[in-house]
Each structure stands twice: as C-alpha cells, then as structure tokens.
C-alpha cells in the first residue's frame, strides 16, 4: 500500500477504496473513483478532478495482483485490493500503525513519515523530474492547478535553484577563471559609476 501512495500519489482513503475492477492490469493504470469512508463503505469521489486514472510502474501492478491472488479475489470485481482477513476494508489506523512499524524497521530518523507524507513525496518527485504544474495537479486530483502551485511552490523554487548555474558562474568570475566576463563586469561598473557621477545634484 505504501508503495502505491508513493508511486501513485493517492490519498489514503483512495488507496483503501480501490477494488479489483479499478485495476487496468494490461496498461498498469489505476482508476481512482472511490474512497473508503470511515464507516467502511466505498464512497464516490466528489469532484471531476479527483476522479482520475494514474499509471503506475508495471512491477507495482504485479505486486497488487499478488495481494489479490493470495486472497483468491482476482475474479471478484468488487473485492477491495487492500482488505482485512474477512474481506472488509482496512481502517486508516491499521495503515498508520503499519507505516510506523515499517519506519522503525527501516531505522528512519524521527519524525517518521505519515501516510500523507508519501503523497507529498510523490509530488516532489514529479516536480524534480520536470513535470508541469498541470501534470502534477491531474495526478494528485487537485481541483485547480493554482492549488498545486500554492502547496508545492517551494518545490519548484528549489528545483529551479538547483538547476541554476548562476552560483557556478559567479564562482568563476570571483576566482578569475572567466577573465572575459570579469573584464565586461569591470567596464559596466565603470559606466554605471560614471553615469551616477553625472546625475544632477539632489537626485
């Protein structure tokens, strides 16, 4: 389940609400149209944007099929992908506790990630891979792109800063490795200083 949250960007309720019929195994696509309510019933998602389809890695689809096959539910369209021993939906607290155990087993530093952190990590990975705001918005099921941009603006800023060569070029300038640029900067500085000296008094 955690891998699906990380690789698909689903909300925990959406992951818990997946049924066998929601899996397009041939194309490794998951249709997200329902969520598991806190009362244990599948409830349709409210907005057109939240109802979506996302492609996932083929190896992850194979893992989901293994989970279903282990319960003998492959040919039961309404069977939940993630279910209790009795076939009912899992409670969110069960998933939370399982993630805590996994974090402890992996010896992750505290604070340990939450289920929703996995969704945020998914968005961060997409941004780092240069997907557009609209691509990320559609994948996450946000209503509008500006919601995505507002929530993840810091990720785009960090990506742009990481790609910038300004710091590297300034380093070349300061160490004298780029003598042509240094000469150009010196000439421009002199021009600017000359213009400032020529300004009328009081300006």
Task: Note down, in words, how this protein is organized.
The protein is mainly α and 203 residues long. It folds into 2 domains: 2-162, hpI Integrase, Chain A; 166-198, no CATH class. It has helices at residues 2-8, 12-16, 58-70, 92-105, 115-128, 133-140, 145-163, 166-174, 179-198, and strands spanning 23-24, 29-32, 34-36, 42-44, 52-55. The protein has a 3-stranded antiparallel beta sheet, with no helix packed on it. Strands 3-4 form a two-stranded antiparallel sheet. A hairpin with a 4-residue loop joins strand 1 and strand 2. Helix 5 crosses helix 7 (145-163) and helix 6 (133-140) packs across helix 7 (145-163). The N and C termini lie far apart (66 Å). The mean pLDDT is 89.
The order of strands across the largest sheet is 1-2-5
CATH superfamily of the largest domain: Intergrase catalytic core
Separate helix tally: 9
Radius of gyration: 26 Å
> Which class of the largest domain in CATH terms?
Mainly Alpha
Q: Give the CA-CA distance, first to last residue.
A: 66 Å
Brief overview:
The protein is mainly alpha-helical. Helices cover 54% and strands 8% of the residues. Helix 5 crosses helix 7 (145-163).
Features:
elongated, three-stranded antiparallel sheet, hpI Integrase, Chain A, mainly alpha, 203 residues
């Amino acid at each position: 389940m955690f891998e699906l949250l990380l690789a698909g960007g689903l909300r925990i309720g959406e992951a818990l609400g997946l049924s066998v019929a929601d899996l397009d195994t041939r194309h490794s696509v998951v249709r997200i149209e329902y969520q598991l309510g806190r009362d244990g019933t599948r409830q349709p998602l409210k907005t057109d944007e939240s109802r979506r389809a996302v492609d996932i890695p083929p190896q992850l689809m194979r893992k989901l099929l293994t989970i279903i096959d282990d319960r003998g539910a492959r040919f039961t369209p309404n069977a939940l992908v993630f279910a209790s021993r009795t076939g009912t939906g899992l409670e969110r607290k069960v998933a939370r506790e399982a993630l805590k155990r996994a974090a402890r087993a992996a010896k992750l530093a505290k604070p340990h990630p939450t289920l929703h952190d996995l969704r945020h990590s998914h968005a961060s990975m997409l941004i780092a891979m240069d997907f557009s705001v609209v691509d990320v918005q559609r994948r996450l099921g946000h209503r509008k792109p500006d919601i995505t941009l507002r929530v993840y603006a810091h990720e785009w800023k960090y990506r742009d800063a990481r790609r910038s060569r300004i710091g590297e070029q300034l380093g070349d300038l300061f160490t004298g490795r780029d003598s042509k640029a240094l000469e150009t900067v010196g000439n421009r500085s002199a021009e600017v200083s000359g213009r400032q000296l020529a300004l009328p008094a009081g300006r």
